[in-house]
Amino acid sequence: MSPLESNATAPIVTRSPIFTVAPVDDDDPPGAPTRHPLWASVPEEQWNDWRWQSQNAVRSVRQLRELLDLPADELQSLGELEREYKTSIPPYYFSLIDTTDPTDPIRLQSVPSSKELENPSGYELEDPLEEDLDSPVPGLTHRYPDRALVVTTHVCTMYCRFCTRKRATMVRGGWDTITRDDQRMVDYVASHPEIRDVIMSGGDPLTLSPTRLRFFIESLSAIPHVDVLRVGTRVPVTLPMRLFDQDLIDLLGSTGKVWVQTHFNHPREVTPEAAKGVRMLLSAGVPVNNHSVLLQGVNDDLGTMRKLLRALLRIKVRPYYLFHCDPVIGAGHFRTSVWKGLEIVEGLRGHMSGLGIPTYVVDSPHGGGKIPVMPNYLISASDDAVILRNYEGMVVRYQAQDKPSTVSPTPSRGVSSLLTGQRTALIPENTERLKRRALRMVEQKRPAGYSTEEGGEPTHSTGRGGCSL
Ligand SMILES: *Cc1c(COP(=O)(O)O)cnc(C)c1O
Ligand code: SF4
After folding, report:
1. Whether residue 403 is found in the same domain as residue 284
2. Residues tagged active-site
3. Residue 246 domain-assigned?
4. Does 166 or 455 have the greater pLDDT score?
5. Is the Cβ–Cβ distance between 242 and 194 less than 8 Å?
């Protein structure tokens, strides 16, 4: 466990003599930033200078050897990998790693691993989303009716080992030689009035020279039919000090069309520096949304995911997507089942602020685009009503239209009894909500108004549009 994390769990809070609330499951505020001993004596000013961070990024196996305890066979594999793939880890991001833990989630994302050499099923692909096939001009993907994605650079501040676009970014010489004609991409957008939202991606657009970045921001924003210009960047996560540059912030805020789409994957990435960078974006009127990738060993458990999402809300970053990890070559060890994603989403919706809940999506093979997947909330249906269930497990009949009620002459039981209209809900006993309700009834000296037997039929109903409980 790194010094950034605390072992403390919240105490059990007794709210009433009748019941106790389960312990709050997370919410350690981010701790003080740490540094790997190698950089302990770097003056604060240099540490917070993004140029220094970029220049001193860890890029070679030779450097990794000094920083981490790597077994000989792993070193040999890393040597092999180094010929094919780039590595880059700014000292700031590297310092978030607990170097005593070989399975540290920050390390897994950034430090190469021998597992990248594996592809046992052969299922993993170079271009899993077939972006290059939906590319009318080099570097631009036009897949959805009203959106286009432009790859503005192949450079990143940190190369995520699971990157979907690693053919362009991480592979040595990937797109170094591809002539992406910036003007041609802009012209394509300008000549397609149906495009209202342009995603500047990469690579990381915030690694562009100020001149090229200004060119893209200004020329794309100047197109009247472009309402939204998204800048997809991991800089708030891997090099937040880049955002301490007021000129950059002013440029991003200058056209009023820019949104930042960033990529936090783990709560420990939400540091005071990241918070400051995001604050600067927000103060320039640039909204910040996040997508995470569901990664085995990094964030594939409910507790970590809740911590991450709550930490993002605290710094006013809106969780937007949770991506299933794409089948890209060398990323197989990061991939989980889709069930794992559903299990996590089941533990989010209803359980925590809806503002913090991303849409879980699978990016479809054959360029089908993003497909949302979620647990089933629709249980059954009849001509008159649908049967839904909520996060507590309450199963409820919902009549969407104002029609004369038709109670079926055939009595039934269970879910079917909701369809026949003989019951309106099957209610689990002793949920926290019902206990709170019971407590209030006791306080108000009123009858509880529900029975918990046999799924708890409401004993009185309220007016239209109301809830009977
Ligand atoms: C993700 C993506 C978009 C944007 O999709 P949204 O659902 O609007 O966020 C656009 N184009 C491509 C090629 C994409 O992969
Ligand atoms: S920052 Fe984005 S583009 Fe760059 S390596 Fe990571 S996932 Fe890929």
Report:
1. no
2. 143-144, 147, 156, 160, 163, 165, 326, 363, 370
3. yes
4. 166
5. no
Instruction: Count CB-CB contacts under 10 A for residue 270.
Output: 25
Q: What is the mean pLDDT of the chain?
A: 89
| Residue 466 maps to a domain | no
Contacts of 1 (CB under 8 A, 6+ apart): 7, 98
Q: What CATH number is given to the structural domain containing 97?
A: 3.20.20.70
Model confidence band, residue 26 (pLDDT cutoffs 50, 70, 90): low
Which ligand is nearest the CA of 195, by number? 1
Question: Nearest CA to 234 among 169, 298, 299, 283?
Answer: 169
- Is residue 106, in this structure, part of any structural domain at all? yes
Name the least confident of 15-29, 274-288, 314-328, 454-468: 454-468
Ligand 2 atom nearest to CA at 165: 8
Domain carrying residue 113: 24-73+81-375
Within 6 A (CB) of ligand 1 lie: 141, 143-144, 147, 149, 199, 370
Please give the distance, rounded to the nearest whole angstrom, from the Cα atom of residue 222 to the centre of ligand 1: 21
Q: Is 156 in the pocket of ligand 2 (CB under 6 A)?
A: yes
Atom number in ligand 2 closest to CA 166: 8
pLDDT at 28: 54
User: For residues 316 and 310, what is the distance between their CA atoms, to the nearest angstrom?
Assistant: 10
Going by pLDDT thresholds of 50, 70 and 90, the confidence category of residue 460 is very low
* Amino acid in the structure at residue 272: P
Let me know: does 125 contact 167? Beta carbons within 8 Å: no
Are residues 273 and 358 located together in one domain of the fold?
yes
- What total of structural domains would you count in the chain? 2
**CA 398, 402, 403 angle in degrees (round to 5)?**
100
Q: Say if residue 135 is in the same domain as residue 205.
A: yes
Contact between residue 395 and residue 355 where contact means Cβ atoms under 8 Å apart: no
Write the residue with the smallest CA distance to atom 7 of ligand 2: 163
Q: What is the pLDDT of residue 379?
A: 97
Give which of 294, 302, 285 is closest to 263, Cα–Cα: 294
Please report the atom of ligand 2 found closest to the CA of residue 201.
3
Q: How far apart are CA 121 and CA 57, in angstroms?
A: 34
Give, for ligand 2, the residue of 156, 260, 290 to mutate: max count of ligand atoms closer than 8 Å to Cβ: 156
Task: Supply the DSSP string of 253-281, one letter for each residue.
Answer: HHTS-EEEEE---SGGG--HHHHHHHHHH
